[in-house]
């Protein structure tokens, strides 16, 4: 299942808090969702674009409004910047999936007939870890379900809120 981990409303902070394994996967999975979402709204199909998981709640959410799509794009861009930082990629190096997103024609994306105009909160793909606020839900989910993946490279470290959200098993 594709997912985005909304650990904060500040997307740069969110990217810094992603475990190492989720930095690259956020770029890859986010690119799949972004390119699928625009194609669902009429963007010309191409073998150069991903088209997968059209019924995933994150894909449906991204396809619902350009504002949602742009918010997810900003998340993916922040994850891409973090990917470059953590693994010392140069300023001109691009993750292949980010190159795919960047290949989209901005004018064509803007001219698509999006079903809604306003941005809505992302879906909570957090299993049993739900909350009234999507960031809260993702913090509970991350602190408990993703604990086995806790590893941060370079100068990144565990988010300060983890102890507050961790539930003893």
Model description:
The chain has 169 residues and is an all-alpha fold. The protein has one domain (11-165). The protein has 8 helices and no strands. It is globular.
Can you give keywords for this protein?
mainly alpha, 8 helices, about 50% helix, about 170 residues, globular
Q: How many strands, which pairing sense, and closed or not: the largest β-sheet?
A: none
Mean pLDDT: 97
Query: What's the Cα radius of gyration?
Result: 16 Å
Oligomer: single chain
State the shape: globular
Number of helices: 8
The H-and-E topology, N to C, reads as HHHHHHHH
**β-sheet strand percentage:** under 5%
Helix content: 40-55%
**Domains (count):** 1
| Content-based structural category | mainly alpha
Low-confidence stretches: none
Measure the end-to-end span.
25 Å
The count of strands amounts to: 0
Q: Brief description of this entry?
A:
Helices cover 51% and strands 0% of the residues.
What's the SSE blueprint?
Blueprint: H1 11-17, H2 20-40, H3 57-64, H4 66-86, H5 96-102, H6 106-111, H7 134-145, H8 162-165
Helix pairs in contact: 1-4, 2-3, 2-4, 2-5, 3-4
């Amino acid at each position: 299942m594709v997912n985005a981990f909304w650990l904060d409303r500040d997307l740069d902070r969110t990217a810094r808090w992603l475990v190492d394994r989720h930095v690259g996967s956020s770029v890859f999975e986010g690119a799949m969702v972004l390119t699928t979402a625009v194609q669902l709204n009429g963007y010309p199909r191409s073998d150069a674009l991903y088209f997968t998981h059209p019924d995933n709640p994150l894909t449906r959410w991204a396809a619902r409004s350009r504002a949602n799509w742009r918010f997810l794009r900003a998340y993916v861009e922040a994850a891409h910047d973090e990917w470059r930082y953590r693994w010392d990629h140069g300023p001109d190096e691009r993750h292949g999936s980010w190159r795919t997103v960047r290949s989209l024609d901005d004018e064509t994306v803007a001219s698509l007939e999006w079903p809604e105009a306003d941005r809505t909160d992302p879906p909570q793909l957090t299993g049993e870890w739900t909350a009234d606020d999507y960031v809260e839900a993702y913090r509970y989910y991350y602190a408990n379900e993703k604990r086995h993946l806790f590893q941060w490279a370079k100068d990144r470290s565990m988010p300060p809120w983890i102890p507050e959200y961790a539930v003893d098993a």
